[in-house]
Amino acid sequence: MAKRPIILHPDPRLKKVCDPVSDLSDDLRRLADDMLETMYDAPGIGLAAPQVGVMSRLIVLDCEKNEDADPRPTVMFNPEVKAASDERNIYEEGCLSIPDQYADVERPSEVTVTWLDRDGRLQEDTFDGLWATCVQHEIDHLNGKLFIDYLGPMKRQMITRKMQKLKREKARA
Ligand SMILES: [Zn+2]
């Protein structure tokens, strides 16, 4: 496994709709493993393939917060939200592509998702709490959508300007 550099907002690759995965190759499995390593190292609870520059419908997540519990590394190819609750939840979200910026985002509090797992088996599960928020945030990435797109234009522009400044500083360093 190897860590991959995470693309920072603003970047055109974070605004594109990603392609479905049709053939689950060893390369894609390796990519999923690399993404998990990158996510745990960051540290973060979710990562989508476009954040490492791959325009394929692949996300990884692990929202297990209890430090005594076993990790739950989850790999989802072609994840799709099949059903969402009317009840909604507000979480303060962040993003590895938008470091150190956080904002409240309202989403359905429960979602049923289907996906292909690392072995290509079709899976379906219903998520709530942080898992529900995280899986929706990551699936949004596959559709070129960021959590700041849920915010008002002023707040979004403020965050984007901060990120542009951060990227200029990083480029000079
Ligand atoms: Zn994100």
From TrEMBL:
It holds the Pfam family Pep_deformylase. One of its GO terms (biological process) is translation. Binds 1 Fe(2+) ion. Fe cation binds at C95, H137, H141. InterPro entries: Peptide_deformylase, Peptide_deformylase_sf. Its cofactor is Fe(2+). Its EC number is 3.5.1.88. GO terms for molecular function: metal ion binding; peptide deformylase activity. Keywords: Hydrolase, Iron, Metal-binding, Protein biosynthesis. The active site is at E138. Gene3D superfamilies: Peptide deformylase (3.90.45.10). CDD domains: Pep_deformylase (cd00487). It catalyses: N-terminal N-formyl-L-methionyl-[peptide] + H2O = N-terminal L-methionyl-[peptide] + formate. Removes the formyl group from the N-terminal Met of newly synthesized proteins. Requires at least a dipeptide for an efficient rate of reaction. N-terminal L-methionine is a prerequisite for activity but the enzyme has broad specificity at other positions. Belongs to the polypeptide deformylase family. This is Peptide deformylase. It comes from Roseivivax halotolerans. The gene is def.
